[in-house]
């Protein structure tokens, strides 16, 4: 096994936490993966992995080497794709996963346009708000909202995910307008999640993040349901503007506590580090990056 193959094997072990899983993902035996990693350790003169009977994790040196491996393998992918793109078109199956609301509201059109551009490509798109492991589930491109911390995946930012506290004008007329985050405790709050037990909203005040406890009058694991409840006058909710933006523009919802808005997340396209990243994945990600911007359409009227 050459060094690039060994780096690929090592990266898979770190990403999947197992020699056996790495071997299955690469189509080689567990012993071949183990031998490749041991050879890397011999050449480098450093222990890269801590091994137990149940789990494998990188050492400090291993984590640093893993980060460089991802960069090197991604650079090789980029070069190979540039050459391949000169004489080939994507084909086969492209598996995409995305959050439910963002997928239905903002991915349907760009994905459809992408599919029309590449008729030899079959797109399998699933929408789910549950956490999926792209490596285990065989997903080529995963759209994820949040703070990117999982270094086992390569992330490319599509756009920011700004959030806003909003309520209907009728609700505020009936219950009063909050003047400070502390006032939220006296209001009906519509929260994202599976429980109406005490929740905390992270709000940014003067550059400082503050976690404000709120009592949930309603909860749902779907943001569109919460937005509809807010429009109907049920209370104040904290949602991404990619959901509430049109309602804000139409005056059905208004910003609450505009000087104390929720922390901003980001929307990423994730793909697994691979020596042979399929051109189909890169083309889709490029297509989505071109579609969205740092100030997407739903934000041009939704935030100050």
Automatic annotation (TrEMBL):
InterPro entries: LysR-type_TF_proteobact-type, LysR_HTH_N, LysR_subst-bd, WH-like_DNA-bd_sf, WH_DNA-bd_sf. The keyword DNA-binding applies. PROSITE patterns: HTH_LYSR. Pfam families: HTH_1, LysR_substrate. The keyword DNA-binding applies. CDD domains: PBP2_CrgA_like (cd08422). Keywords: DNA-binding, Transcription, Transcription regulation. Residues 1-59 form the HTH lysR-type domain. Belongs to the LysR transcriptional regulatory family. This is LysR family transcriptional regulator. It comes from Tistrella arctica.
């Amino acid at each position: 096994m050459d060094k690039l193959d060994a780096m690929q094997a090592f990266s898979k072990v770190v990403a999947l936490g197992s020699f056996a899983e790495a071997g299955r993902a690469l189509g080689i035996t567990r012993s071949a993966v183990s031998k490749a990693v041991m050879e890397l350790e011999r050449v480098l003169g450093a222990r890269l992995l801590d091994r137990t009977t149940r789990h494998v994790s990188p050492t400090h040196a291993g984590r640093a080497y893993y980060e460089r491996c991802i960069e090197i393998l991604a650079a090789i992918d980029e070069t190979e794709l540039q050459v391949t793109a000169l004489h080939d078109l994507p084909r086969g199956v492209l598996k995409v996963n995305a959050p439910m609301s963002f997928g239905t509201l903002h991915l349907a059109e760009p994905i459809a346009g992408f599919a029309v551009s590449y008729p030899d490509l079959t797109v399998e798109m699933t929408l789910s708000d549950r956490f999926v492991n792209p490596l285990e589930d065989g997903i080529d491109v995963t759209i994820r909202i949040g703070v990117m911390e999982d270094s086992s995946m390569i992330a490319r930012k599509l756009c920011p995910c700004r959030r806003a506290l909003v309520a209907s004008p009728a609700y505020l007329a009936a219950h009063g307008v909050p003047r400070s985050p502390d006032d939220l405790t006296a209001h009906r709050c519509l929260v994202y999640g599976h429980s109406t037990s005490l929740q905390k909203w992270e709000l940014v005040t003067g550059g400082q993040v503050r976690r404000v406890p709120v009592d949930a009058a309603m909860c749902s694991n779907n943001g569109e349901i919460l937005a509809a409840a807010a429009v109907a006058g049920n209370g104040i909710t904290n949602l991404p503007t990619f959901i509430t933006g049109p309602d804000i523009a139409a005056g059905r919802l208004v910003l609450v506590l505009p000087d104390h808005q929720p922390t901003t997340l980001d929307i990423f396209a994730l793909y697994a580090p691979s020596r042979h990243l399929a051109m189909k994945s890169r083309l889709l990600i490029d297509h989505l990056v071109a579609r969205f911007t740092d100030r997407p359409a739903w934000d041009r009227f939704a935030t100050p």
